[in-house]
Predict the structure.
Amino acid sequence: MQQGRMSFIFLLVLLCQCGVKAVVLTTCEGDTARLTCGLTSQVITCESDTASLHCDQGHIKVLSANYGRTNSATCSSGKPANQISNVQCTQSSSLSVLSSQCDGQKDCSISASNSVFGDPCVGTYKYLDVSYICIPSGATIKKQSSCEGSTISINCNNRFIKVVSANYGRTNRATCSTGRPANQISNVHCIQSSSLSVLAAQCNGKQACSVSTSNTVFGDPCVGTYKYLNVSYICHQNNQFITVSAANYGRTNSVTCSTGRPANQLSNVHCSQSSTLSVLNTQCNGKQDCSIPATNSVFGDPCVGTYKYLDVSYTCGPS
């Protein structure tokens, strides 16, 4: 079920990039809807299945990957508790394996199996979680570094910025080390996990941006260490943004999101929440990517006792 939803989301990304405007997304109650007009895709593949990465235009660049388990929900259907209880299962070589087989290709298929990745947690039912970007033809990944206390400036001229990776911290002793005492550059395991999201929020979709390389912007991941910001980005021509045209949180048929549900949770097919569209518009319009939980806490409960789903129609186009 999870694999099917992620594959559908991946399809949405391709549709936007290829210029197809209307997208329809259905998300079961309790899951998270992801609307995207960006260039980044995520694919989650259960153990023993095959992951398929595809770029209709351009080529694949894998950003992150893990073969293991970091939550108890993904790929859990029909599995006993002892096979999904270990949620700290990571395989550090996952990214290098994916990168070596998929980077630079338009299509790449790889088995989510112990024979490919090794077994990082024997007895646990694992899955492969991959995030990758489709780099448009003619675009290259550019890199910049900026020392703590200075400002990084990214300029794509008449194209648009897409940040691929970022870290504010320190992973070597050489960068931004001139005149610094040894105790300020000795910690080379300093990583700020929120760096990418912070920089993406300030730069993605713009033609130029300037960001202060400082603790006030990124937080301080290693007090006493003199840090720097490492950024990888591309300049691309696609600059599409979300516009939600229709949305309903409720139930209008007895088939959608019905697997395993009793009849009394599916019988009300006249369930609609009038405020759904305004909620989606507020949270998603004008963005390239938007995730929103399909839950009562977000939309309210229009029909108590009915198992609901979120139905969204949106377009990808210029802002």
About this structure: The longest strand covers residues 59-68. The longest helix spans residues 2-17. The domain at 142-236 is CATH 2.60.120.740 (Jelly Rolls). The chain has nine helices and 15 strands.
